[in-house]
Write a structure and sequence with these properties.
Layout: E1 5-10, H1 14-26, E2 30-36, H2 40-50, E3 54-56, H3 59-63, E4 70-73, H4 80-89, E5 93-97, H5 104-117, E6 121-124, H6 131-141, E7 148-158, H7 175-191, E8 197-204, E9 208-218, E10 221-228, E11 230-241, E12 245-248, E13 259-265, E14 268-274, H8 279-291, H9 301-320, E15 324-325
Parallel strand pairs: 1-2, 1-4, 2-3, 4-5, 5-6, 7-10
Antiparallel strand pairs: 7-11, 8-9, 8-15, 9-10, 11-12, 12-13, 13-14
């Protein structure tokens, strides 16, 4: 246990129990110190199941634990900013589920708090840590597809539970915040900036159930995306350049299964396979290495700002029916 990052989990959400905690148990540099919930019985049950040393019946109480180095926040989207900043002010490093917050103003405040408190804050876009994304970026850097001109991405699934929190606007629900953020994040990662302007269209009920969008990055560079809660399970990403293209069939949820990506240059097709790999574990280990000074973050804070600003612009465009500029300040 020596030199391992001691984690506290804020809430017993499904993603914490189903993804993060199993990955933490398998990680090489992390250990579960505490679990907190507003329901102490839930915290105690989760702590027993995953071997946590402490269970707390409140988030504030857990933040007072001096043995916790880092906090994982899988709370509803509208609570990310509040509790991330409280954790940072309690001198904890913070890994916060995407989206980091539901407004540019809040993301800016979170990053300023992390800087002031000299603590590490990272947005948990776990897909970035799967080696297939590193391979894609390497092919692009090597010039294998020429100059990138277009990124396209899709992410949809059928959300059939009417009580699901993703369908509640007051909690930052909506398909764009929940799954559309993935292809937008990838495009900003590839192009190295936010788009200059966007045009989006959504099907709104209480929240956007589906959204499609076109993002312009200037210099003949663009991005096309679609996301939905009312379509068949679907995920796909494609990066198109002047001399080739890259296809990633399972970009956002490769999970722990074998996957293959393709590099296509004219009539030539090269396929690269990857053994089963858990991106949540890789994310946790990278986060720990950043805290320990062993690695530089591969998810810079600027990317979080760019992504939330892009999403805000997409919502504005969808509501007004007009092309909208992306505002980063």
């Amino acid at each position: 246990m020596k030199n391992k990052i001691r984690w506290g989990i804020m809430g017993c959400a499904k993603i914490a129990r189903g993804q993060f905690l199993p990955a933490l148990a398998d990680s090489s540099n992390g250990v579960l110190q505490a679990v907190s919930s507003r329901d102490l019985a839930k915290a105690e049950e989760c702590a027993r199941m995953w071997g946590a040393k402490k269970a707390y019946g409140g988030y504030e109480e857990m933040l007072l634990d001096p043995l916790i180095d880092a906090v994982y926040i899988p709370l509803p989207n509208d609570l990310h900013a509040e509790w991330a900043m409280k954790a940072l002010e309690a001198k904890k490093h913070v890994l916060c589920e995407k989206p980091l917050a539901v407004s540019l103003e809040k993301v800016t405040a979170m990053l300023e708090t992390a800087k002031r408190e000299e603590r590490f804050l990272m947005e948990a876009f776990m897909y970035r840590f799967h080696p297939q994304i590193g391979q894609m970026l390497s092919w692009i850097k090597e010039g294998r597809i020429g100059e990138v001109r277009q990124v396209s991405g899709s992410f949809s699934f059928r959300l059939e539970d009417p009580a699901n929190i993703r369908l509640r606007a007051e909690h930052g629900g909506g398909s764009l915040w929940d799954v559309g953020c993935y292809p937008i994040h990838l495009a900003n990662l590839v192009f190295g900036s936010a788009p200059r302007k966007v045009m989006a269209q959504s099907h709104f009920e209480a929240v956007d159930l589906s959204t499609t969008g076109l993002l312009w990055y200037g210099e003949n560079k663009q991005m096309l995306f679609d996301c939905s809660f009312v379509q068949e399970n679907r995920q796909l990403a494609e990066v198109v350049g002047t001399e080739g293209r890259i296809i990633i069939p399972s970009p956002w949820r490769p999970d722990s299964q074998e996957v293959t990506i393709s590099l296509i240059q004219g009539r030539e097709r090269y396929e690269k396979g990857f053994l089963a790999s858990n991106p949540y574990r890789l994310e946790i280990e990278h986060f720990g290495e950043c805290i320990q000074g062993k690695a530089e973050p591969i998810l810079p804070s600027a990317l979080s700002l760019q992504t939330v600003a892009t999403i805000e612009a997409c919502y504005k465009s969808a509501r007004t029916g007009r092309e909208t500029e992306v505002q980063l300040d």
